[in-house]
Design brief:
The chain is an alpha/beta fold. 32% of the residues lie in helices and 26% in strands. This is Protease I.
Amino acid sequence: MGVLDGKRIAIIATDGVEEVELTEPRDAVTWAGATVELLSVGTGPIRAMNSDIEPAGTYAVDRRVTDADPGDYDALILPGGTINADRLRMDPDVRAFVARALESGKPVGAICHAPWTLVEAGLVEGRTLTSYPSLRTDIANAGGTVVDEQVVVDGNLVTSRDPGDLPAFCTTLVEEIAGS
């Protein structure tokens, strides 16, 4: 039995997602027993990238964000990738889904560029988090406190800086979901 048996977790991503930031958290929660669904802005497969510039694998989407209800999931994971994060933060349905998940108290994990969606949705004011360095001014301007640490937990929000932090991010995310 895994510590996440019976948990349903949504991952929101689109074209340009950083592949390891999609696959490693997905594999960590799946290995711990959770069921994962990949949500996106469209229905077709999404193309992942390596380091934002090298095409990587494609991943089948389970459902569109507009067809999903945050109440059906026990947690949410937002992988990074510059293109992915920029596209997702501009989508009102994605912002609404993320806001509902975070405000409901469910664990939300965001790594690398993913906090852009949190900024755009007005969800960082008064929170402490970390991110890829290029987002830190945006987070501070949105009222968040930025720290440069491998992983930061602020209430139900778990953030990390980049793929180098994935071991700490995945471990902490599994622990936070298991404790919720």
